[in-house]
């Protein structure tokens, strides 16, 4: 198979290309190339032209074609040599439509503009893919830069925007990829029938191959010891228990605050392994780029116009899929065990005897602190940090009876308030009644780690008004305490400073070095 990119134009729906392309590319897709691998088959591809450019293109096609056909009256010595070696044939004269018909591809490299245009036109008329080097308007496909580890082929395309970038990427891949990668794929291919006979399709086969490709068998082959690799694959296959009933597993995964870079390596691995992903809307779409293309993604969070699933419905869905033998990822914003109801899901699974694993995530408070560059604890001004929720499980009204704010107010302590914007006024009053100064600094961070993150510096007495006035409507976390008065990094809407000229940062951070002792 030979990698080319076809104009998506006229090829039908592009959805199977994966969420990645659709998400990254939001402009006009009509001229964007779709990568496919074309069989160059028994009918040799046609190259029109006999110069050095034609020779270069022929060498490229000969990576996958047994033979090519040149249409040229005169040829350079390199082409004559290919003909002598039996890798190419040559015909003379101007090729007509019958010479083009049935070709897997045609490349017109005559270096004569009018002739190239004629060939392009003829080929398009009969639906034969055609390429004219450096003339995108005459091409119905483009040739990708190739890294060849047959049968593994990497095709790199940049839509002609950055050919030098493609060359650099190719050089980088050449250097990074073991020359034995092709052997690894070939050996896996040799085992396919045996694996298919012994293991059930779907999860069992995938888990087996995952183990092979991430384990010592692969390592041996990539290091050049094929015999050892084959032995180890045999051993893995012998170990497989084909009588065990199909049992799925569930991985509760913390997706972090939204920025996919803040996923853990384990979270990425879990996403890649998942057959089914049940996802909160807090989890952010970027993180789903790591899911397999075939994975079923079930949104279970609240969204406009969609009924959000109850916890009982979510638990039931997890169980149904796990019992069907699937690998289920329950993807939750931040950390699953911080105001994430992860505990309830784990209880349900335990009660049903389903294996469960928990992958922690970066919680909103630490993400907000990192982006403000304000530490949550500090040797001098914050001895503890308490995560509280502004939302109560019952009617949604704030209920802070369970926290001893008086005790926390006496020392230097920090509160990180989740789901606290709507009830910020009630919380502020409770804190002030418990002896906290009305001037206690508050930092509100909305959509921490997202591109449209907003930070607001305010104080207890005015936090509710500020939140309303700034229409903080996305998920936001409040950091309350002296620590919130440290000068934060980057732009902050310093609302409180406008209203209250007395509002001053408690300390200012001179350099990162100040954190060294924190
Ligand atoms: N398990 C999550 C919290 C879920 S509760 C975690 O560990 O982060 C939902 C609340 O989390 C939101 O109301 C908001 O207060 C906070 N939150 C979640 N993602 C956030 C983000 N990116 N920025 C700010 N706050 C966020």
Automatic annotation (TrEMBL):
Q: Organism's domain of life?
A: Bacteria
Pathway it belongs to? Porphyrin-containing compound metabolism; siroheme biosynthesis; precorrin-2 from uroporphyrinogen III: step 1/1; Porphyrin-containing compound metabolism; siroheme biosynthesis; sirohydrochlorin from precorrin-2: step 1/1
Specify the Sirohaem synthase dimerisation domain's residue ranges: 181-237
Q: EC no.?
A: 1.3.1.76, 2.1.1.107, 4.99.1.4
Q: Name one GO biological process term.
A: methylation
Q: Which InterPro entries match?
A: 4pyrrol_Mease, 4pyrrol_Methylase_sf, 4pyrrole_Mease_sub1, 4pyrrole_Mease_sub2, CobA/CysG_C, NAD(P)-bd_dom_sf, Siro_Cobalamin_biosynth, Sirohaem_synt_dimer_dom_sf
Q: Which PROSITE patterns match?
A: SUMT_1, SUMT_2
By its UniProt entry, which SUPFAM superfamilies does this protein fall under? NAD(P)-binding Rossmann-fold domains, Siroheme synthase middle domains-like, Tetrapyrrole methylase
Can you tell me which residues form the catalytic site?
280, 302
Domain Tetrapyrrole methylase: start-end pairs: 249-461
List GO molecular-function terms, semicolon-separated: NAD binding; precorrin-2 dehydrogenase activity; sirohydrochlorin ferrochelatase activity; uroporphyrin-III C-methyltransferase activity
Per the UniProt record, one Pfam family is CysG_dimeriser
Task: State the UniProt keywords alphabetically.
Answer: Cobalamin biosynthesis, Lyase, Methyltransferase, Multifunctional enzyme, NAD, Oxidoreductase, Porphyrin biosynthesis, S-adenosyl-L-methionine, Transferase
What is the reaction catalyzed? precorrin-2 + NAD(+) = sirohydrochlorin + NADH + 2 H(+)
Q: What PANTHER family does the record point to? A: S-ADENOSYL-L-METHIONINE-DEPENDENT UROPORPHYRINOGEN III METHYLTRANSFERASE, CHLOROPLASTIC (PTHR45790:SF3), SIROHEME SYNTHASE-RELATED (PTHR45790)
Family note: Belongs to the precorrin methyltransferase family.
Descriptive protein name: Siroheme synthase
Name the lineage: Bacteria, Pseudomonadati, Pseudomonadota, Alphaproteobacteria, Hyphomicrobiales
């Amino acid at each position: 198979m030979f990698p080319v990119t076809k104009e998506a134009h006229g090829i039908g729906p592009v959805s199977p290309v994966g969420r990645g392309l659709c998400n990254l590319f939001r402009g006009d897709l009509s001229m964007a190339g779709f990568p496919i691998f074309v069989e160059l088959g028994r009918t040799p591809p046609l190259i029109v032209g006999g110069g050095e450019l034609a020779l270069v293109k022929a060498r490229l096609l000969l990576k996958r074609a047994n033979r090519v056909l040149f249409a040229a009256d005169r040829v350079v010595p390199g082409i004559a040599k290919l003909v002598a070696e039996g890798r190419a044939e040559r015909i003379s004269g101007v090729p007509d439509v019958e010479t083009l018909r049935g070709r897997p591809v045609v490349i017109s490299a005559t270096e004569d503009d009018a002739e190239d245009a004629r060939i392009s036109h003829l080929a398009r008329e009969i639906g034969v893919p055609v390429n004219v080097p450096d003339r995108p308007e005459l091409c119905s496909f483009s040739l990708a830069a190739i890294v060849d580890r047959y049968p593994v082929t990497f095709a790199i395309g940049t839509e002609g925007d950055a050919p030098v970038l493609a060359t650099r990427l190719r050089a980088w891949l050449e250097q990074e990829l073991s020359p034995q990668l092709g052997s690894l794929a070939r050996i896996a291919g040799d085992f396919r029938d045996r694996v298919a006979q012994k293991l059930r399709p779907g999860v069992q086969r995938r888990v087996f191959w995952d183990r092979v490709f991430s384990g010592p068998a692969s390592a041996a082959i990539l290091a050049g010891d094929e015999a050892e690799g084959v032995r180890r694959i045999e051993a893995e296959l012998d170990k497989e228990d084909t009588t065990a009933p199909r049992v799925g597993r569930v991985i509760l995964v913390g997706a972090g605050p939204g920025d996919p870079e803040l996923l853990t390596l384990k979270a990425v691995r879990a996403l890649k392994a998942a057959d089914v992903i049940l996802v909160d809307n807090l989890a952010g779409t970027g993180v789903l780029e790591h899911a397999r293309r075939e994975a079923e993604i079930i949104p279970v969070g609240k969204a406009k116009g969609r009924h959000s699933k109850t916890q009982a419905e979510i638990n039931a869905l997890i169980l149904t899929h796990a019992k069907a033998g699937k690998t289920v990822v329950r993807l939750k914003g931040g950390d699953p065990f911080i105001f994430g109801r992860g505990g309830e899901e784990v209880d349900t699974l335990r009660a049903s005897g389903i294996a469960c694993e928990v992958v922690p995530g970066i919680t909103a408070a630490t993400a907000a602190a990192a982006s403000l560059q304000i530490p949550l604890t500090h040797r001098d001004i914050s001895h503890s940090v308490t995560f509280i929720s502004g939302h109560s499980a019952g009617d949604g009204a704030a209920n802070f009876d369970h926290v001893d704010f008086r005790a926390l107010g006496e020392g230097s302590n920090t509160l990180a308030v989740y789901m606290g914007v709507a009830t910020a006024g009630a919380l502020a009053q409770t804190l002030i009644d418990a002896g906290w100064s009305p001037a206690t600094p508050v930092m509100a961070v909305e959509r921490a780690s997202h591109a449209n993150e907003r930070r607001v510096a305010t104080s207890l007495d005015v936090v509710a008004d500020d939140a309303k006035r700034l229409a903080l409507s996305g998920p936001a976390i409040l950091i309350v305490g002296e620590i919130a008065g440290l000068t934060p990094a980057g732009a902050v809407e310093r609302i409180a400073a406008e209203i209250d000229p007395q509002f001053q940062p408690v300390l200012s951070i001179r350099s990162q070095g100040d954190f060294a002792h924190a």
